[in-house]
Design a protein that fits this description.
19 helices, globular, mainly alpha, Growth Hormone, Chain: A, 454 residues, 2 strands, 1% strand
Length: 454
């Protein structure tokens, strides 16, 4: 029975989309932006560090892989660890701690620009980003009106396009205005500033109303909903399924139906991670290997040209996400993911063909455009949405964290192996491995979609 103060309240799921919803969405999407910024900055910093050879800063192919994978390893660890803690203790504390970790790590890189500081600092920053990945989608999925929920969760993932494009463009401008290679640590101030801004926005925030209700704090849940969405908002309990009444353990997540869900959400996310991060982090080096730069520039001029082309290629992430958002509410997400993987593989195949046939650069750009649009409009978008669809509230943080961990494991493998593949077989081997990975993702998605998302 409602108290008299509760009359006239609107359940969160039934509220019209408002400015407060957009504020919740924007603040809860920041780790998506920062994660993309982290990957972009690492890819730009590596060739800058290489130019400092002779000062003890040169990186072998193996060390390039370690540097590239450090932040992603942090994400892979942070996602399930913070997801598990937040399922038990609530979301708000770690929602604030995550951006502080990112800020602190960025400042360390700026103050102590050494490859020995860079690796652990990137891990810490990644740990914060990984925790944010888990909490971001949970906040958005529960606070948005039901009519707009899937689109808003997908749109949050799409904000990574801002991170990829914006940080590449800002770095290009910074380098073009004279930033020397020896000041490579300065570019990580971009990530630090975003972490600090995110923390400041989260000082006056509230815990998850759904988590509070689920743990018996009904009054606090109503206060949280009204703080986030206005005085008319009402947090409504969600009926629990019998199997969701008991807390899930790690072992439970790898049994029976849950194992199928883990494979469906995790393996596909891993394959997507190879494409997004394996290619994305080393995009400046891949562009050089593909021969896009015909100016024969050397030193910093070569780095600047590759960063400029990286900005152009990254731009294609935006129309990919926009296309995905247009259809995400109308199309089965499993089938959407399957077709995205297949078209991504086709784009990489065209790029390989164009490279060996020595076709004009514009054909290779079209191939890259196909790859980026298909990957970001399909797998990169829906792998973020799927865990919120298939797991109950009692284990959503853990399930989301495990899926994200798989995704970052794939990204780590891709990033770690990328420079080694370039050394072993050149750009041809890199493209063949990327094509094979996209096809594996398509196969898993096609086979399990009827069982998980019919």
């Amino acid at each position: 029975m409602k108290n008299k103060d509760d009359f006239g309240k609107i359940p969160v799921a039934e509220m019209p989309l408002s400015g407060r919803h957009w504020l919740v969405w924007a603040v809860s999407s920041m780790e998506q932006v920062i994660g993309a910024v982290l990957s972009t900055l690492v890819g730009i910093a590596i060739p800058m560090i290489q130019l400092c050879a002779g000062h003890g800063q040169e990186l072998s192919g193996l060390m390039q892989g370690v540097v590239g994978a450090a932040g992603l390893l942090g994400i892979a660890v942070g996602s399930p660890v913070i997801g598990r803690i937040s399922d038990r203790e609530g979301y708000l504390r770690w929602f604030r701690i995550c951006p502080l970790l990112i800020f602190a790590a960025s400042v360390c890189i700026f103050l102590f620009p050494s490859k020995w500081v860079l690796v652990p600092a990137l891990f810490v920053a990644g740990f914060g980003v990984g925790g944010g990945y888990t909490l971001d989608s949970d906040y958005i999925s529960e606070m948005m009106p039901a009519k707009w929920r899937q689109m808003m969760v997908g749109a949050a993932k799409a904000t990574c396009a801002i991170g990829f494009c914006g940080s590449a463009a800002l770095c290009w401008w910074w380098l073009a205005t004279g930033l020397p290679a020896s000041r490579w640590g300065d570019i990580f101030l971009i990530m630090g500033a975003l972490g600090l801004i995110t923390f400041l926005f989260r000082i006056e925030w509230a815990g998850s109303p759904r988590w509070l209700i689920d743990h018996g704090f009904t009054h606090k849940a109503q206060e949280a909903a009204r703080k986030l969405l206005g005085p008319e908002a009402e947090a409504v309990p969600i009926p629990k399924q019998k199997e969701a009444q008991q807390e899930m353990t790690w072992g439970d997540m790898f049994k029976g139906e849950n194992l199928t869900k883990v494979i469906f959400s995790g393996v596909t996310w891993a394959c997507e991670g190879v494409g997004v991060y394996g290619v994305g982090v080393f995009l400046p080096l891949l562009i050089i290997a593909l021969g896009f730069d015909r100016t024969h520039a050397l030193g910093m001029a070569k780095v600047i040209n590759s960063v400029e082309m990286t900005t152009l290629v990254n731009f294609f992430i935006i129309p990919g996400f926009l296309l995905g958002l247009l259809i995400v509410r109308r199309v089965n997400h499993g089938r959407m993911m399957t077709w995205g993987f297949l078209l991504s593989a086709a784009g990489m195949g065209l790029l390989l063909w164009a490279y060996h046939a020595e076709w004009p650069v514009w054909i290779s750009i079209v191939a890259f455009m196909t790859f980026e649009i298909a990957l970001n409009g399909g797998p990169h978008l829906v792998t973020f949405i799927i865990p919120t669809e298939i797991y109950p509230v009692s284990c959503r943080g853990l399930g989301d964290g495990i899926a994200s961990m798989f995704g970052k494991a794939g990204a780590i493998i891709g990033v770690f192996l990328m420079p080694l593949l370039l050394e072993a077989g050149g750009i041809t081997l890199v493209l063949i491995v990327c094509i094979a990975t996209m096809l594996v993702g398509a196969a898993v998605s096609a086979v399990l979609t009827p069982r998980v998302l019919p």
